[in-house]
């Protein structure tokens, strides 16, 4: 009897954990249309496509629309929505979120984990180009969402660009203290150079070694040049090829810290 009770309790625990896991998975929607811009069929199509893409690359690829960003910028809203709603797969919370923000009038792409490495700054700009080229700015929101999925899918298929690197956005900025120190140092250096130069040139003017007014002779004549022949030579100047996204700044993924303290990449565009 005791053994049966233990087995029954163990089985119940397994069922409860499985049910909880399935419920949590079902609640994690990949299309959250709070702005109600998609029809039921459009929303279903987007959800199914994103689910397939997410499973293929083991990351959450999410689309969110909103009319109220809670007073936040599009970047903060997108990052926080991703962080605080359980999105992201694995220890690094791999994922990509597209926010259509009708409050701030901005389309924003937030990346996390390996999503940061796949979607460099240059690739994000290219995806935004595709979204707006599809007519998003003219109210063709479903076409814009489809363009996001197609463009993102293409870059995911290409893999992480060779030479890709993450760079925190704060690494290119200087503090106010550093700026003041630099200004003071450059000012002192400039004043020192000015004083030295002024001292070197200070003194009485030396007399002219040659009296050019009394000793010069100028004779002006008439000269003319006749154009005999004229030749024109032309050649094609080769254009340097555009570098791929594997090197230089084209391979950079600029990152920042969200409100939760996690690292995100991303970029947006107003409409």
TrEMBL record:
It comes from the Bacteria. The keyword Zinc-finger does not apply. Residues 251-261 have a biased composition (Low complexity). Residues 1-26 form the signal peptide. Keywords: Signal. Residues 31-151 form the TPM domain. Residues 262-271 have a biased composition (Gly residues). InterPro entries: TPM_dom (IPR007621). Residues 242-271 are annotated as: Disordered. This is TPM domain-containing protein. It comes from Youngiibacter multivorans.
């Amino acid at each position: 009897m005791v053994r049966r009770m233990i087995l029954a309790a163990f089985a119940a625990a397994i069922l409860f954990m499985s049910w909880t896991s399935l419920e949590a998975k079902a609640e994690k929607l990949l299309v959250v249309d709070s702005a109600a811009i998609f029809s039921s069929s459009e929303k279903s199509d987007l959800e199914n496509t994103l689910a397939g893409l997410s499973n293929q690359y083991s990351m959450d690829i999410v689309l969110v629309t909103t009319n109220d960003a809670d007073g936040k910028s599009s970047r903060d809203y997108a990052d926080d929505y991703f962080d605080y709603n359980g999105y992201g797969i694995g220890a690094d919370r791999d994922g990509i979120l597209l926010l259509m923000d009708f409050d701030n009038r901005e389309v924003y792409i937030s990346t996390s984990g390996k999503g940061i490495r796949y979607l460099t700054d240059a690739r994000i700009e290219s995806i935004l180009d595709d979204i707006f080229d599809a007519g998003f700015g003219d109210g063709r929101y479903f076409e814009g969402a489809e363009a996001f999925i197609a463009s993102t899918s293409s870059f995911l298929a290409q893999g992480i660009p060779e030479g890709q690197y993450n760079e925190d956005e704060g690494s290119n900025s200087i503090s106010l203290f550093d700026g003041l120190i630099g200004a003071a140092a450059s000012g002192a250096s400039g004043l020192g150079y000015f004083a030295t130069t002024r001292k070197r040139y200070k003194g009485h003017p030396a007399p002219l070694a040659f009296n050019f007014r009394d000793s010069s002779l100028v004779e002006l004549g008439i000269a003319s040049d006749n154009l005999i022949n004229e030749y024109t030579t032309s050649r094609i100047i080769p254009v340097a090829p555009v570098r791929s996204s594997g090197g230089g700044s084209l391979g950079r993924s600029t990152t920042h810290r969200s409100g939760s303290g996690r690292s995100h990449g991303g970029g947006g565009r107003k409409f």
